[in-house]
Specification:
- The protein has two domains: about 20-155, Glutaredoxin; about 170-215, Antioxidant, Horf6, Chain A, domain2 (Antioxidant, Horf6, Chain A, domain 2, 2-Layer Sandwich), CATH 3.30.1020.10.
- The chain is built from seven helices and ten strands.
- It has helices at about 30-35, 50-60, 65-70, 80-95, 110-115, 155-170, 190-200, and strands at about 20-25, 25-30, 40-45, 70-75, 105, 130-135, 140-145, 185, 205, 210-215.
- The strands form three sheets. Strands 5-4-3-6-7 form a five-stranded mixed β-sheet.
- The chain is elongated and about 65 Å long.
């Protein structure tokens, strides 16, 4: 009989579900931990696996970037706290890279189920490579899901974070392939008067509804 287990999946715009957990940096209440900051919550399938080691090392190396952008990192896998600590130690001894951000020990899969990280068609016992971008109001702003066998793109994670923060700060949108420093899209006019005023602006315009500017 085909497995029909369905786990809830938070959506963009939802408040990130709260939870209490044991992590490699101590006990955590998620909402208390992320208070006042952006957060990237990301899961990996298992400790002591090759792709996950490259990904977690990538997050660790980029910690200064995330700190500069007021962003906390929180990792997770369905492993025990003892496995997490042993893995952190192993990677540190072999590469000199230390995972200083908390890694949730989700041995009972409660957080993975809460966030829809278990995809039954992929695995019932390992979390897929999920990435949740959460803003300071605790709202989920962007979600990425990768299968077990494809590692994430760190440059895209960084780009998406800055895009969200830039959009919030300047009330703009980002065009296809936007990179940090590129022009941004100005929201389209809502009235005829706004449309006429835009014609006098120094925006780069394809037409009145598609205008770009530098910030």
């Amino acid at each position: 009989m085909e497995n029909t287990t369905i786990y809830p999946m938070p959506r963009i715009g939802d408040i990130a579900p709260n939870f209490d957990a044991t992590t490699t940096t101590g006990k955590m209440n998620f909402h208390e931990h992320i208070e006042g900051s952006w957060t990237i919550l990301f899961s990996h399938p298992a400790d002591f696996t090759p792709v996950c080691t490259t990904e977690m090392s990538g997050f660790a190396v980029e910690t200064p970037f995330f700190n500069e952008h007021n962003t906390k990192l929180v990792g997770l896998s369905i492993d025990s706290i003892h496995a997490h600590v042993a893995w952190v130690n192993n990677v540190y001894k072999n590469s000199g890279i230390l995972f200083e951000f908390p890694i949730i020990a989700d041995i009972d899969m409660s957080v993975s189920k809460l966030y829809g990280m278990l995809q039954p068609g992929e695995s019932e016992t390992a979390a897929v490579r999920a990435v949740f971008f959460i803003d300071p109001s605790k709202k989920i702003r962007l979600i990425m899901y990768y299968p077990l066998n494809v590692g994430r793109n760190m440059e895209e994670i960084k780009r998406a974070l800055v895009a969200l923060q830039t959009s919030d700060k300047h009330s703009v949108a980002m065009p296809l392939n936007w990179q940090i420093g590129d022009q941004v899209i100005v929201p389209p006019p809502r009235t005829v008067a706004d449309m006429l005023e835009r014609e006098k602006s120094d925006y780069e315009m394809m037409d009145f509804y598609l205008a770009k500017k530098s910030i």
